[in-house]
Structures are given as C-alpha cells and as structure tokens.
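Two proteins, back to back. First:
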Amino acid sequence: MELPVRSPEPRAARKAQYRIETKSLSYELSSNVGHFAWPGQAVETKSHGRIILKRVSCEIPPGELVAIVGPSGAGKTTLLSVLAGVIHPSEVTGEILVNGRQMDTSRFRRVSGYVTQDDALFPLLTVEESLLYSARLRLRCASSAESSSRVRDLLSELGLSHVAGSRIGSGHGSGGISGGERRRVSIGVDLVHDPSVLLLDEPTSGLDSGSALHVLTMLKSMASVHGKTIVLTIHQPGFRILELLDRVILLSDGELRHQGPVSLLASRLTESGHCIPPHVNVMEFAMDSLATLPLPPDATKLSLGEFMKIKIPKPTTKEDRVFYANSRGGEVCILTERFFKNVSRTRQLFTARMIQSLVAGIGLGTVFMNVNDLQARVGFFAFTLTFLLSSTTEGLPIFLQERRILQRETSRGAYRVSSYVIANALVFLPFLLAAAILYTIPVYWLVGLRREMGRFLYFSLVVWLVMLMASSFVACFSALVPNFIMGNSVIAGLMGSFFLFSGYFISEHSIPRYWIFMHYLSLFKYPFEAFVLNEYGGANGRKECLDMEKVGCVLNGGMFLRQQGLEESQKWSNLLVMFVFICGYRILCFVFLWFRCYRMRR
C-alpha cells in the first residue's frame, strides 16, 4: 500500500480519505509447533488451533460510522486488531486493502489511531497534560504553541474543556474524572495527531447509556464532518446508538452474517420470514436469530486445509520500519518531563520515601551512636545495605503500570523504547540523590564514622549508587516478570541470595566453587567493601586500633583490611563495578522491554 506523502498542512485543509476492505480474511489462533525453515521456505505443520475469522469480506468507507457487532466470542476484537495492524497481515490469509492497495502496516499506523478497550492513562496527569504529551510525541515538526493549540481544539471537540485541569484518577472511586470522560481522553490521546482512520475496541464498555451516547455522537460527528474512517466494536447497541450507525458488520462464530446499513438487515430478516417485535431493536433481534439468518451470498465455508501451510515472512521488510515524530533526544526530554511530574505527584513514592530515609538515618544513627566495636561497625554497614536495597522494591507496581502504557504507546510509534529507558533512569537521579543525602547526613555523624569531609562525601556517593543500582535492578525485572506477585517474589529471593553470598556471612574462600559466581554478582559485595575501605583505609584508618589488649594493639585498620583481602585501589574500582551494574541492568531492561514491544507490534 502506498499512502500519500504530504507536507504539513492546516487542519482545516482537506485530508486524504481511506477506504478499508477485506477479502476472504481468515485467521487462526494457532497452538501448533512449527519447524525451522529458512526465510521464504514453506513448512508443513499440523495445526491444532482455533479458527477465529472465516472468510470475512467487508468494506469500511470513509465518512461513515461503522460498527462491528456480534455476541461474545464472535471475533469482533480480532477483526479490529487485524484492521489496525496489531495482528500482522503476514499472520492472516486473504487480503487487507487500503484504498485498493495492500496494507503497509508501518505507513498505516501513521494515519490511524487505535483505541483499546482498557484505558492506559497516567492517573496523576491532568486531562490537558495527557493530551499535550501525546501531541508532543506524535505531531511531527510541531512547535509547543502548535501542540497547545491542537490540544485546546481537541478538548473543545471532545467536550472536555471543563475538566482540562482535573487529574485523570485511577477510575476506582478514588477521585478523578468520570468513566465517560476517561474514555474520551483515551480517544483524544489517539486523535491528537489528527488521524484519518480511527479504530476503537468497545468504546462504550463500562459506561452508562448517557455517556455511551455522548461518545458515539462525538464519533459520528467526526466521521460525517471531517470525513474520517471510523470503525468500532460494540456488543449490543441500543436504539439511540443504533440510529447513529451508518453501517454494521455482524459476526457470529467468526463468520460474516451481514454487512451494510441497519435498514438492509431489517429487510433481510423480513424476507427470511421473521417478524421484528416493536419493543426490540433490529440488532438485538438479529443476534437472537443468528441461527436462522442466512449467510451472505459471498460467504462460503472455510476449508481447514488453508491453514496447513504456514508462510514464513522475511526477517526484515520495509513495512516494519517505524517513523518517529521526534529525535531520540527530543523524546528523552519529553518523557523525562512526564516522568518527573508523575514521580513528584506520587506521594507514596516521593514524600514517604523522603521521610523514610530521614527517619531511618536518625533511628539507625541513634542505635549505633559512637559505637566503636568492630563487629558492631561492620554490622552497621551490612544493615545499611539491607535497608537501602530492600526499600527500593516499592517502585515495582509503578514500573509495571508504566510498562503497559509503554507497550501501548510504542506499538503506535509514539517514541522509541530506548528513549523510555533513558528517561526513566534520568528522572530517578535527583530523586534518589535527595533520599541518599537525607539518610547519610544524620546517620554518618551520629554513628561517629571518620570525621573527614572527603570520607563523608564518598560514603554519600556509595549510598546514592546503591539506590541507583537497586532501582535499575527493580526496573530490569519489572520488564521481565508477568505481574507484581511474581516480581516481588523474584526480587526478594535474589536480594536474599545476594546478601548470603556477599562475603559477610561466609568468606569468599569458603563459598563452594559452583556458587562463586553469585559472590561476584552480589549487589552487596562491592558497596560493603567500599564502606569498609572508606572507614579503615588511608593513613589514619590503617593506624586506628580496633582491638586493644594488655600487650598493646593486636588489630588495627590495616591488619583488618588484609584479613578481608582488601586493597586501597579497590575503593574506586568498586565504584566502577557498581556503575557497571547500574548500566547493565538498564541495558537488560531495554532488551526485555524492546522484545515485549516488538512482539506486540508484530
């Protein structure tokens, strides 16, 4: 499909229109196990999957409001996903045509918007901010003034001007805008780049009749006034909604039972001998009479043999390329600003974490106040690391929520996954630095550690790097695990293992060889050694007596470091290793997220 390439034009100018057609479209939800084949080589497989769509041929013209209707399990969402390019054309049989040409999924995404059934919005952003960030990420070559102007127009068009400054909210009775307004915001997020094609999955789901009618009236206006191609799925429309629909596509068990105006459906029912009661609308009666509703003339039974040959698509095609509206640097700036607003408005994460760091610093400092015993001092270092590394797991639910939004936005080409990972790392730098300072200022001086400014700054730097390391660790596994319960279990288990193999409970030489790799992967090992070297290293630290007997000092700082196998040079090499851990976990986070988003896009 060759989509028209146009230079930026005023919104009032006439935009290109798009007619979507499917011809004998079939799709199987496969559970088979394929065999290896080189690109372009066909491979025979035995299919044990379920056929979702069966030779569906339909037409969606521009300027009309088209609804895909049918009972649960009819294949409505699957058909919409195919039309939106979420299910890749290479995975279906038949044809998908846009303006008479084969669909190019990459180019089609640039002129289309896809609104899923579940809302993927940041609850702490306002309505205007949600649309504005979407505009800045999706509008190509648009200035801030142009983006703001587009958002103001869209707020008026969606009927959201009165709640522009209200936060989205979680939608679970905890404040925020109403359900109907949330749906309109979700639609607006994908309308902000003014797409010519809009596809919506159950836009009236969970709404009362008034809100549902408002949403459908708005979509009807967009189709008729602006000439957009709009198609949506709906389970069972009422009288007033049915009057707004220009065309319906009725599915049952994956088969097309009717397409065209509602009046034509009524005629078909009457011709087949049915009498529609006055209190029942045409669509409700048709869905109750699907067993007796004749198939359209062009609908034939699907041969299972069509699925016996699976085509292996080429590994690289031009249609899989995504075109972004901003440079990577521009994306990082926009996403960092959005992240910062979300973090600063999350009281549980921001205020509670700051108070926690300050209280922990004061509390731990008073417990170990001026304790010079070597065992107690080393125990203080170990407990500090336990507190710092374990307290960062509270960010896991936020990472998981953002992952769902990330997958949605990157699948539509809003920004790159790498930009998200970089922005996510940058926004936590000042936040965790503040938490580190609030912890180290009271605890360092109350415990009575080396009263040298250089030593204090080094201690603070280690605490900051530990927090960053833990944050990167949690971000990495939040990209990998399926849910919060699994993530919490995996992270807690690994943190416990890192502590066990850190060298505090059992020395490096006593760890079995088959477990030694865990010692070097431990997040406790390197900061623990850095704390010890900072306290007992240097000219003054090596001379400090740690064990005094009648014969004199039998253990000083230098002796203790030799017992532990530590050298002065490791004071800085340990910081380097911690920095490598921070970068390494962020890179793994990128790999996991990229793979998730790539699978969703494919």
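And the second protein:
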Amino acid sequence: MKTQTASRADAPSPARTPQRNRVIILTVLLLVWVGVIAVVHLTQGSADLSVATLWKALWGNGISQTSDIVLSSRLPRLLAATLVGAALGMAGAALQSVTRNPLASPETTGVGAGAYLVLTIAAACGLSSSTGVGFLFAFGGGLCAAAVILGITGQKADVLRLVLAGSALTMALSSITSVILLLNTWQTQGMFVWGSGSLAQNGIGGVATMIPVAAVAACGLLVYGRRLDLLQLGDDAAASYGVPVTSTRYSVLVLSVLLTAAAITVTGPIGFVGLCAPALMRLLTHRIPGLRRQRVFLSTAALTGAALVLTSDVALRGIFGAVKGIGIPTGVLTSVIGAVFLIVLARRLPRGGGRGESIASLRAGIVSPEHGARTLVIVAAAVVLVVALVAALLLGDRILLLGDLWNWCRGVASPRVDLIIETRLPRVAGALLAGTALGMAGLFVQTVTRNPLADPGILGVSSSAGVGAVAVITLSSAPSDLVIYLAATIGALVALVLLLLLGRKDQFQLVLVGVALGAGAGAVTTLLLIRSDPWNQSRAMTWLGGSTYSTTGAQLVPLLVLIAIGVVVTIRTRRDLDVLQFDDTTPHVLGVSVQRSRLIHIGLAALLTAAATAAVGVFAFVGLIAPHAARLLVGKRHALVIPLTMVLGAIIVVVADILGRALFAPTQLPAGLVVAIVGAPYFLFLLKSAKSEG
C-alpha cells in the first residue's frame, strides 16, 4: 500500500505535464533559433560562403582558405556573440530575481559602466596586458558599482529608484571614462568603438579564456535556483524555509557580476541584453507557468540573450553590408532595441510603480522669509556668479591678473592679453547663458509635470537634441549655426512630444520613458560618430561632452533671445506656476488653463534646451540641481525660485568650465563631463536622502 502511494506521489501530475511540455517546446524553439541564426551568422562576411561550403570547412573537408576564414575570423565572432548574450541574459535574470525588480539588469544598475571604467583605467595605465587580468579589473569595477547602488537604494529597491540611481551612476562613470579617453588618447585607441559593444575579435584566445569563467558562474546560479524560487515568496517566507537570505542575495549578486565582467571583457558593454532577455521570458509566464521556476527562467533567459545578440549582429550586417557592418558595434542596435523595449515595459507596468516624490513633498525654504533674507540669498548668489565670471576670464592655461583685465576693459592691454581674453570671452558667455537656459528648462519641466526628477538631461531631451545636432555635424561638410540649432530643436521637441504621449500616466512612467529615450539617442549618436570621418568624429565627440571650445557670438544670439522670452513669459505666468506644481484642481478653480500653461512651458523648455545644446553641447544634471537647490533655499514661490534657479544654473556651468580648463591645463576637459561627474553624486544623494526620510 505504501509503495503504491509513493509511486503515485512521484508520478507527474496531469497539471504539471502540459507545463513541462510547454517549457520543453520553448527551449527547443530557442535552440532552433540560436542554431539557425548561427548558421546565417557564419555565412556573412566579405567573402560569400554557402551553408554547404561552411559545413565542409567545419569538418575539415573544404578548401584550406575557407577553413582559415571560418576558424580565424567568423567562429570567434560567433562564439563571442553567443557567450556574451548568454552571460548577460542570465546575469540580468538573476539580478531581477534576487531583487524582485523587473527592471534590474547590468545596464540599469551601473554594473556594466563600472566594469568598463576600470578596464579603461587599466588600459590607460598599461595594466590590462591579458584577457585574464582585464577580467579581474572588470569584475572589481562591476562589483563596486553594484555595492554603490545597493547602498543607495537598499536591497529591495522599488523600480523607479533603482532605474534612476543606475542611470545617474552610469552617467557619472561614463563621464569619468570619457575624461580618461580624452587624456590618454594614445593608450586607449579603439576603446570608444569597443566601449559601445563590438564583437570584433583578434583570434579565439579571449573568448576561450572567458568561457570557463562564465560556465562556472552560470552553474553557480543554477545551484542557487531552488533558493531563488523561495526568495520570490518574500524574505520572511524564504527564511522560514531555512534559506539564508542575506548570504544568498550577495552570492547571487557576485555571480551575476562575474558573468557581466566576463561578457564585457570579451566585447565591451552591449546594452540592454540583460534587461530584454529575462523580460521577454517574464512576458511568457502567464502562458508558460513553468518559467517561474528559477532554473528554467535562468536557462531560457541565457538562450534568449544569445539569440538576441546573434540576431542583432546579423541584422546589423544585413542593413549596412558585410564589410561596413563589421565595424559597427552590435551594442548600438541592442541599445536601440532595448530602449524600445523599456518604453513598452513602462507602458505595461502598473501605474505608480515607484515611490517617487512630488514637488509638493519636497523640503523647501530653509532660509527664513523674514526681513528679506531670501532676497539676500539671490543677491549673494548673483555676487558669486560675478566672481565666477571674473575667475573664468582670468584662469586657464595662461593665468591673468585683475590688472590685466582692468587694462583690457580700458583698451590698453598688451596684444597677448587681448588675444587671451577675446578667446575666453565667448566661452564664458556661452557657459553663462547655457547654464541659465538649462536651469530654466529644468524648472519648467519639473513644475508642469510635478516631477522633481524631470531634468532634460535625465529624461533624454538633451541627448535627443544632441542627435539632431550630431547628425548635421557629421553628415554635412560645413553646417551653419542656424542649421545645427534647428536640428537640435527638432530633436528636443520630438523627445518632449514622446515623453508627453508615452509617459503621461505618472512620474514613474515618465522617467522610464525618458531613460529609454536617452539610451536610444545615445546609441544613434554613437552610430553617427562611427560612420563619420575622423575629423567630424573628433569634433562631434568633443562637442557631445558639453564643450565651450568653439562657442561663437553668433551661436549665443538665439540663446540670449530665448532666455529673454522666457523671462518675459514667466513674469506673467509665475503665479500660474505656483498653483500648477500641486495639482490640477486648484488651477481650474483659480481660472488657470492647465493645458495651455503646460504647452507654453514645455515648448519653452524644449527651445531653451535645444539652444543650449546647439551652443555648447550636451549637459546633464544642470536642470535638476539648480531648481532643487533654489527650492531648498527660498521655498516654492516662483517669483523667487525662477531668478535663483537661473543664477545657480549659470554658476554650475561657469565653474565647471573653469575646472575643465584649469585642472589639467593645457589639456582641456569639456564642462559637461565635469558637471556629470559632480552632478551624479548629488543626484544619488537626493535619492538616498529621500529614502532615509521615507
């Protein structure tokens, strides 16, 4: 009797059999997808090879030259694509499972950016002489980035906080990487293309070294599969079943970083594979419940990741041709696909997916309103700005004295002083006006969307404006300032329209759509740069960093006019903005047209961002920091917030330009990189503070 009962318990239930069959069918389909696309992948190249010829070559029955092509060129690329896709897919799946966050991935947690930064530092110092050594550097960098994100957001971060913290950290680390590339051009040759996710391989040695590492990490994650199953029930439930929650979480995190580091060591960062592959599997769980088992989920995510990378590489070479397609990083296409996929996920996720703040909940007005103290704050900020402007004219690769500046004002300076000041003056004016415009733009967007995280840089508006400008710079031999400005304006307006259409539900959706737009714009920009000639490529890369190098008076005229228009408009609408920042009901009661006010201020923000981007390049965080600091100091009345925001935005960019010119003189750093390096930690501090207060 006992034997019969045991045999019945061991037998698969009727309900489990269809689920298991569905999992088997899905696995077979994924394997067929990978196999077919791998064959197509091998046939692509400068030499046309048929499937029959490849089959003979692989088994040693073909022409020796064909065998050499396959073994020395195409097989390493195929193996690299398969390894990297599988590693990133499984790493993303493990991160999503251990954090119970559907948007966790090596890209959204900054792990990839951290690994790439440390590899760049090693290359600049001549330390990454072998694949194994490079892997150790990448692993260390990725682990440090993951530790920073966990320290800021906590181990169970909500979706919005994780994505924002990861995006800000990625911006900061990428800016530091760009600085190192600019300062060590000779030592880091080829790192720009490789940093966008290039599958080009110099032999099979690098891939062969990383395959055992990735295999060990993958097996380790599969061993933890049962614990991950229980973790999906919650920490308390998992602990009641005997799961050591903390050690399991950290072990899975380390193994995920190992997989990510192995992938980046081989090909550089390939964007969004770690997000898309597991997300695709999650979308199928309602039809295939067996995917909820973590070992199945991890395995199918790995297969999907390999299929995505292989398909992207095949599509890239199909679009641009076998020869030109080889030189374009596959990460460009995966980033575009990932950006679209992130927008789709943002639309599907439930409303209010993150515990975001609102303008009304922000701490504000630490300066007492008595006796005009808040007005004195604005005056003090203006004095600081004047001091910064004078310092900007005096400091640089050649240091001037106040007497030199006085003599120049009187027209009796030496020719050398005349030349230096006349060279610096447009740059200083560009930094002043760009900071003012970006501060205003950030304030407008934050107020009308009631989203304190709505910076034009973080939401992809600046990057989209940059796409338009870079397209003109790289595709035209001598574009005029007007054409560059119009192209940047079109890019910014397109981004804002998409934000309003696709992210109108709440600030959670708005931020996710903005992050996706920024990632997609960055990928398109990289594609334009790679396909450009070296002269335009260097010019555009410098400009993209937020540079005042080539600023001219003609470029600043539209910026000055738009700032003047913005000031005139806000003099009339400042009271409208005061009530718009809280809700939609109060403005209606007071006779304020919400839709008209939003249209006016969003349009102004787009024009200001485009003008600033066309004049000095892409800047992030200025439109976030300046309004936040202004509200913190003087409260939420826009009669005080607007002028202080303008002054603080100008101070940020002017001081960043001074540091960029003086820190490594005579080498000069773009001011936008300096702002990102400083602004990202401030943004992370805001997230940390909000978490502590919550």
